[in-house]
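pinging the channel bc i need a second pair of eyes. not urgent but kinda urgent?? the chain im working w is below, pasted from the shared doc
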Amino acid sequence: MIENKVKVAINGYGSIGKRVADAVSRQDDMEIVGVTKTRPTFEARSAIAKGYDLYIALPENLPLFQQAGIEVNGTLDDLLGKVDIVVDCTPGKKGVENMDKYRKANVKAIFQGGEKHDKVGRSFNALSNYKDNIGAQFVRVVSCNTTGLARTIFPLVRDIGVAKVYATMIRRAVDPNDSKKGPVNAIVPELKVPSHHGPDLKTVIPGIDIDSMAVVVPTTLMHLHSIVVKLSRPSSTEEVKGLWRNTPRVRFVKGSEGVESTAQIMELSKDLNRDRADLNEIVVWEDGIQVTGDTLYYFQAIHQESDVIPENIDCIRAMCGLMEDNIASIRKTDAALGLI
């Protein structure tokens, strides 16, 4: 058992926060000190049932918790006084509003992909720029889609060379637990071109030449990417397959074996007995990979609720100086999460 574990707070015990909390609790070099909620929801009760100390993010809402019979251990300020680092999983654009609070408490903070890179100053991907964030105070883990792009594109940059990337994101409309948003019966193009995904990738792979577009479709399961890569030299389908087989957090599936859509991918995740049926890896259709000369074509699927979870764990290690080697951290994280 490792002594002097890094003490971690989760600000925002929601879709991402609860997953990060569970992932931290499985690591032997860090521990959850507490989690926060703004309102007395079912997730607040779930946190207590799991043994997490619950703190209130908005002190003015304390009467709501008292009326619901939910006991809290204090406020967010109280929690910050007990930890080394906070993983901010509050809704997009809310996280940076907490930055001054974290700075005054002298704690490190990780933000999620809903925040702007220029507001935080640093962005993180475990494979591509881990070492750049060692010891940093504030870091942003890039979004689920950008994480997916980085995991498959960075090995190409590193081992083959990439001249240009064209990526189209076919995005799920909402997470499965969201009943208030759409579209229900429409395909919505993102008319701002390029979409934010390409510029976001450049924050973790500097110099990458990428054009990106996006559409939103009425599904909740996963995102899907259609990607064309102009390589720096001629390659082969087998070379690219071999490269990705040796890349952490990339999983192959085959349409020829019945995995023809995101629906079958999520069924596969259930069969793997993953918590919440999460699939932390990026899924690539092996029989959809094609290299012709110096041009690579492929499809990949992103489980938007879970692919960034291991990245948050590795980011904690980098920021707190627990490990200098990114591959060692990735392997440690993945072993604890049952990914290898």
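so The mean pLDDT is 97. and The longest strand covers residues 162-172. — does that match what u expected or am i reading it wrong
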